[in-house]
Amino acid sequence: MSDNKWILLEDHGAGVISLTMNCAPVNALTSENLNFMAKLLDNLEDDNSIKSLVINSSFKVFSAGINLKEAQNFDLDAQVAMVRGLNTVFSKLFQFSKPVIVASEGAAIAGGFFFILTSDYRVAGPKSMFGLAEVQVGVDFPLPLLEIARAMLGAGDLRRLMQSGNPIKSEIALNSGIIDEIAHEGETFSRALAVAKNYSEIPPKTYSKVKRQIRGSSIDKIQSLMKANYGVPDNGWYSDETKAAMKAKIK
């Protein structure tokens, strides 16, 4: 287990580590939690004994993205901290040299969906939902995250998910290639572990090179964007529509 209770680490042998998000009730993303995860990913990247990583959730929801009740009142500094945290974590995951397997039993929405998009193999539950709800809450996409979405989604899925903000069910995500398989209910994590153990047997240097070959042009763009103040807009993230849009979505 890590020293931060929102992330639970477990060693499953054969170099397979699970990273379980544990921030009740829906693994809402905060700048503090994202900063912790960024440092954790650096440590996991540098540990040669780790061969593959499984990311999952302690709860029915995988991750609902940022907490809108808090986010609607973000000042400029808080907006900058959130965008920097999102950009840093997901750029690190996108570039992570080792296999990243995701077990998403429940909904992965907005920022939470980027755990799916940055991973190498995606196992979903039959009740999983996936979506990019940013447009509905009055924010656009930080440019490093936009580059990830462009690299990982087909043109049609990119258009539908980003411009409508509506989620899709696991069957549609499977047919679109957004996820790789649907496990039986309650077996998502065990199936992801099996995949991770299989991936852990691949020669690690070769795996890293092949992953870089596939994602290299997008990684280069993201690295360039991150050099510009970590991809954070100078005038913040919100527009004059954001607070009202977030408030309307809170139930």
Structure explained in plain terms:
The protein is α/β, with parallel strands linked by helices. Helices cover 47% and strands 14% of the residues. The protein has a single domain, classed as 2-enoyl-CoA Hydratase, Chain A, domain 1. It is built from 10 helices and 9 strands. A hairpin with a 4-residue loop joins strand 1 and strand 2. It is globular, with a radius of gyration of 17 Å.
Structure characteristics:
6-stranded mixed sheet; alpha/beta; 251 residues; 14% strand; single chain; globular; 3-stranded mixed sheet; 2-enoyl-CoA Hydratase, Chain A, domain 1; 9 strands
Instruction: Enumerate the spans where pLDDT stays under 50 for 5 or more consecutive residues.
Output: none
Average pLDDT, rounded to a whole number, is 95
Describe the global form: globular
Largest sheet: 6 strands, mixed
The CATH topology name reads 2-enoyl-CoA Hydratase, Chain A, domain 1
Distance between the termini: 34 Å
CATH class: Alpha Beta
Helix content percent band:
40-55%
- DSSP E strands, number: 9
Strand order of the largest sheet: 1-2-3-4-6-9
Radius of gyration: 17 Å
The appropriate CATH architecture is Alpha-Beta Complex
Provide the fold topology.
Layout: E1 7-11, E2 16-21, H1 31-46, E3 52-57, H2 68-71, H3 76-95, E4 100-104, E5 108-109, H4 113-118, E6 121-124, E7 129-131, H5 143-152, H6 155-164, E8 168-169, H7 170-176, E9 181-182, H8 188-199, H9 204-227, H10 242-249
Parallel strand pairs: 2-3, 3-4, 4-6, 5-7, 6-9
Antiparallel strand pairs: 1-2, 7-8
